[in-house]
Amino acid sequence: SSGINAEYEDQTSVRIENLEKMVASYKDQIGEQFKDKIKDKCKIRDMEDDMRNKQEEYEEMAQQIHTLQQEKEKYKERLDETDMRCADLEDEFHQYKKEVDDERRSQKDLNSKTYSFILKCGS
Length: 123
Hints:
By secondary structure, the chain is mostly helical. The chain is 98% helix and 0% strand. It contains 1 helix and no strands. It is rod-shaped and about 180 Å long. The chain starts with a helix and ends with a helix.
């Protein structure tokens, strides 16, 4: 009976040892899983920070684009105004040129009439 008892105790202690090894193995696996979980949480937090930063950069760029578009519109308006002023000045220039040309023509006419008159008087 003591032989059977000893054998039973041996089997039991082997089973306990095996169970303890399994428990230790599971603890290690759980520890590894926990480490992975923490790593993933850190990665997620970093990604969220990165996304927030990118969003801020994007909003800043969008604001800069909006400002540049407004400036561009102002310059286009100024350009249109300049074009209109140039056209007005060109019209004025042609008007004065016509007046000067008319004045010259009438001066020539007057000169030739005066010359003819002098010639007639002289003869």
